[in-house]
Fold:
Amino acid sequence: MMIRRRFLAVGLGCLGLAALPAGIVRADDRQAAAGGLIDTMIADLQAFLATDTGDVEARAAEIDRVLGTYFDMDTITRFSAGQYWRAASADQRTEYEMLFREVLCGTIVGNFDQLNGLAYTPGATSAKGDKFVIVGGTFTDTSGTRPPVAINWRVLTRKGKPPRVFDIEIENLSLLVTQKQENVAVIRKNKGQFGALIEAMQARLDTPLHSK
Amino acid sequence: MKLYSELDGIGAHLSAAGILIAALVALSGCSATPPTERSDARDRYEDANRKVFAFNMGVDSYVLEPVASGYRNTVPEGGRTAIDNHLRWASMPSTAINSTLQGKFENAALASLNFLVNGLTLGFADLSEDDREVQREDFGQTLAAYDVPEGSYLMVPVLGPRTTRSLAGNVVDIVMNPLQIFGTSTTADTVRTAQAPVGAVSFRANNFDAFNDVKYNSLDPYARTRSVYYQTRLGLLEDRVADRAGSAVSEDEFDSLFEEAK
Structure:
């Protein structure tokens, strides 16, 4: 009985070893694809910054393009509404998608000047299960006035689909989780009404961003 | 953004232990918000917390924000660095003791060395030539390491967000302030008294834009503050470092998000 168990263990071990290289290759491929996506996006942004004239409309158009090209906006939008996404009507979902993207663009454009003078250094990359890859990196201020900022890009790597960013983590702070928790709080404080979040986002858009 | 980890550090310098204890006593008398009316299950005293948050924002608007703005514009970079150095130096004994209690002996040794070397200038000048950064450890983190539950989320007057565990830890950290050992000498008293307000202004100035973004541009500044606090605190408890990609805790958070998306 003991010998049979040993054979079984050795057999399973061999099967595991045989399967291991294929698994590693797949994870490596996903990590390389995710890292490549971030490198391309950074190069793309740097090219825009090099010719940026400060025109707000041009910046907004560029941010919208970057979001559409490199980010999985459908997933981000759904996640940001938490469990209340399911309860929202089709019209509410459409309106929310539009408002969410507009608010996101407006926030990035409002902080656009902070992107100037930053150098990006790629960091470690690690696969998280079969769903996504985390690509690390650091932004350094070339003038040395701001401290370096560690960043993690969460990149969806689904089979048969191109990799897409769905979250950015800055110094342990996930922007998507923060937005989701804030959105859910707005809905819950209004007795679970998804419409309350839409109203709050509309009000946000109607108010100019606080200047730095 | 190291917003609330630094804020915790300021709490450790405050000599106003009375504020902490009074806050605990006052909140123990508050009635809990019914679970169905909470915007986050962890926020047991949400109604009372939101009132304290509104008060804190008032204090910020009338006192801290204008003073921090002036501090940023008038105190030269070198002066601000010296103040930050001193505040960090004052937390070294607490870091050394808490690191030891958590079994992080290398960090404890680094903190002790830093404290002794920089003690010559009361920490205002960084004389250590060691590139390894001391990871700040507080008694709240030590309690977490010994599996003490984190308790409720509390918005403490003036100090800001805490959990019951981190607030209790702050009280212990105050006792470890090195200036306590100088007794009641006038100089020590002056520096000790100045640490709290200077620390608060320095913190606000160092995080001026990030803080204003939460305060003025959020859909719900209270909820965003709570989210930022919990995530930052979790990062400290998990000892996540900047160059290590991700953590199991964050992955769990996204697992639930993937479930929701199905």
